[in-house]
Amino acid sequence: MKEFNLGIIGLGNIGLEVYRNIKKNASDIKKKTGFKLNILKVSAKNIRKKREIKIPKKLIEKNISKIINDPKIDIIVELIGGSDGVAKKIIFDSIKKNKHVVTANKALIAKHGDALSILAEKYGVNLLFEAAVGGGIPIIRSMKQGLIANKLTHIYGILNGTTNFILTEMEKRNESFVNVLKDAQKLGYAESNPSSDVDGFDAADKISILSSIGFGTKIINKGFVIEGIRNIDLDDIRFAKSLNYTVKLLAIAERKGNKVKQRVHPCLIPDNLDVANIDNVINAIVVDGHPIGRTIYEGPGAGKGPTSSAVISDITSIMLGNDEYSFGLAPSAKKKLNLFNFDNHISKYYIRFLTKDVTGVLSKITSVLAKYKISVANLYQEPSKLGSANIMLVTHQTKELSIQKVMRKLLTQKKLFKKIVMIRVRDYKKL
Ligand SMILES: NC(=O)c1ccc[n+]([C@@H]2O[C@H](COP(=O)([O-])OP(=O)(O)OC[C@H]3O[C@@H](n4cnc5c(N)ncnc54)[C@H](OP(=O)(O)O)[C@@H]3O)[C@@H](O)[C@H]2O)c1
């Protein structure tokens, strides 16, 4: 019987759980794959650190290159993180040593995935990263294998559990962004530096990976709209509710002819729409394609259990000989699709103005909107409180460029406005 030998590098949240679950499920893995899976070596930054699980001394190796160069090791599992530095070196070096690589590192795959997949093909090894998107949801393998017969047109959803938790809790508890963020940090859902999550970068890495797989394009990892949820107040959630909308941070990729329309930003979505009721740290991904139509994937988008499930599924996929391309097609077949010019995006827009208690505010807003031929579908002005008042409006369909011009013009009016929040409205049919 052939055995597969692993080297696990990184023994944090995920690495330790992968170790634990491989040990715990060793006999199942053998039954399901026909092969024995051994953990031959593990490594971390501080090999003396006391960990939740006792790891036999003989497995621990401080020198990572010894693991990479060990001829007995078939698969390297990189669970350190970071788009560059040591994680990058480990993956490049491992492939060059003919090792299969499994990683959960979305930042690294979004940045170096194209170069790495070319290298993996050259060296005849697998580079798999199911855990990089959607935690435990098997979205990557579903898209690469389950949907292989389809031409995908849209991929969108909630790809960041932390921001979804924050938005859900703000609404449920009527609590501010800042306070809920603190709670999320205490619960371990948000990092001490939460920027990657709350500013949309984590979701951006994930949608870059999915659009590359879904549309067969080289990774588009920059130049698209990436907005997070820092600017969103309880007032926005309250106004959205009054209009039967929910605020969600969506990551969206659409195929538009030879272009890809890709973005991450908060959206107002109708209360009864597919992903509106996906709450807390749950992720959901909607995939449209021909001939299948719409499929929806939902599940825990992070955390050690779900993420270890995805990492182990990659390991066993390699053992089963699923000779998968990293992005679902030969790297040489990947096209370089360009980004759709987002200035031409058409949407309804929600805009909230937190105004100072001065006269002429509403007429200023309406005159600037009129200048750019933007008509208003809803408008509501709250009575002034403590020297501020909210004016909320929703436009009819208009061009992104016009809204950006309006925003630029009004944001300079410091005497009139304390804050302006713009959120794109996602209609039933339109993305
Ligand atoms: N946490 C999640 O829910 C989640 C979900 C999906 C994907 N991921 C991805 O999974 C990966 C790991 O995340 P995590 O949450 O497990 O991170 P973590 O808890 O911070 O663990 C990182 C591990 O890497 C080790 N490490 C750091 N620098 C190293 C170095 N120079 N050499 C060797 N080892 C080093 C650390 O060693 P010490 O323990 O000795 O400090 C630690 O064991 C990341 O790419 C992350 O994006 C995480």
Structural description of this entry:
With 431 residues, this protein is α/β, with parallel strands linked by helices. The protein has 3 domains: 3-132, NAD(P)-binding Rossmann-like Domain (Rossmann fold); 144-300, Dihydrodipicolinate Reductase, domain 2 (2-Layer Sandwich); 343-425, ACT domain (Alpha-Beta Plaits, 2-Layer Sandwich), CATH 3.30.70.260. Helix content is 35%, strand content 26%. The protein is built from 14 helices and 17 strands. The chain has helices at residues 13-24, 26-33, 64-68, 85-96, 106-123, 139-146, 161-173, 177-186, 195-198, 201-215, 234-242, 304-319, 361-371, 400-411, and strands at residues 3-9, 36-43, 75-78, 100-103, 127-128, 151-158, 225-226, 245-256, 259-270, 282-290, 293-300, 338-339, 346-356, 376-381, 388-395, 398-399, 417-425. Strands 6, 7, 8, 9, 10, 11, 12, 13, 14, 15, 16 and 17 form a 12-stranded mixed beta sheet that branches. A 5-stranded parallel beta sheet has the order 2-1-3-4-5, sandwiched between helices. A hairpin with a 2-residue loop joins strand 8 and strand 9 (259-270). Helix 1 (13-24) packs across helix 12 (304-319) and helix 4 (85-96) packs parallel to helix 5. The chain is elongated. The mean pLDDT is 95. It binds NADP nicotinamide-adenine-dinucleotide phosphate.
